[in-house]
Amino acid sequence: MNGRVPAILLSLICFLTLSASHVESARTFHWYNALFVFGDSFADTGNFPKSDLSEVTRQWYQPYGCSHGFLQDPTGRFSNSYVQSDFIAKILGRSEAPQTYRATKGNNYADNLGVNFAVAGAGVFEVPRKAPTLATQIDSFKKMLEGGDVAKWRLEESAALVAISGNDYARVANMSGSESEILGFIGNVTDEIARGVARLRGLGVAKVLVNNLHPLGCTPWQARPSNYTKCNARGNMAAEFHNDGLGKRLNASDNVYLVDLNRAFTNIVDPSDDPHDVPQVAKRFEEKLKPCCNSIDPSGYCGQVDEDGGAQYTVCSNPEKHFFWDDVHPTQAGWEAVMQQLEQDIKDFLHISY
């Protein structure tokens, strides 16, 4: 009997230790029931309908998706593979972004882990491509809630991404007004983003991630005049005005987080001139401003073909060494490098520790 006491005590100690470990794990593991995505081509995973090849449907044609999965087929993403919404989903423990809103129409809603409402070309105001605005996307989300397609209990532990990346500012280039008029328009855009975030919170979304604006002047379509050697300072200044206004309007709280795309992009595409200060993440890319998929015609687009089907573009041999895929969008490697810089801060905001 006495000889068995140590063994019993040892077993009890082991049990309590394992139990304590399990409790600690339970405290730090935070599971989100659903991810809802809103915005534009930085987050769209196939909502824009496929039709004949054009600049607005090119994401459904080669060479888009050339690095995606076994089949290497286009998936409706503006990249060679994954985009930002996929990497946000990975942070939440998923394999990729949730089902597109387009896929839920006419079918029984199957993906209970969220919905992606983002559509390429979208902004907060009507744009030439007629993509649904942020407000319209949120209206669709509201209808799914009211119709029971999305269970309201899932919102108790839910996250949303709002990715508005500058489509509204296409009209600024055509403005002939004063600087104050342009700044006023930027204020209107950021007001609408903040209004959309407030609506999502009012509908019950627990945590909202909101992109700030990446350095617009460092996108290939802005850097092309310099043969991809430097960024356009004016474009970057516009992004700074936007980000300053957005930060003030959002009043980031425990439930709203501003995702600093501008810093993460800049660390890679416009690092310090001092080679000793260049971030390690920037050294991954041999081409920081030149896109992997480059149109032959300066006014053309990646994926464009002539009347005989001949390619009017070139594609690099190694997308992993290019930050940008086309004239605006990062490669999968580019998005991975951006999101790796932001991942820990996002996890801290969402109370995720795995």
Automatic annotation (TrEMBL):
Per UniProt, the keywords (alphabetical) are:
Hydrolase, Lipid metabolism, Signal
Leader sequence range is 1-21
Molecular function GO terms recorded: hydrolase activity
Query: Ligase: present as a keyword of the record?
Result: no
Keyword Hydrolase attached: yes
Top-rank taxon of the source lineage equals Eukaryota
GO terms in the biological process aspect are: lipid metabolic process
Classification via Pfam families: Lipase_GDSL
Family under the similarity heading: Belongs to the 'GDSL' lipolytic enzyme family.
Protein name, entry field: GDSL esterase/lipase
What is the organism field in this record? Urochloa decumbens
Q: What lineage, starting at the top, does this entry show?
A: Eukaryota, Viridiplantae, Streptophyta, Embryophyta, Tracheophyta
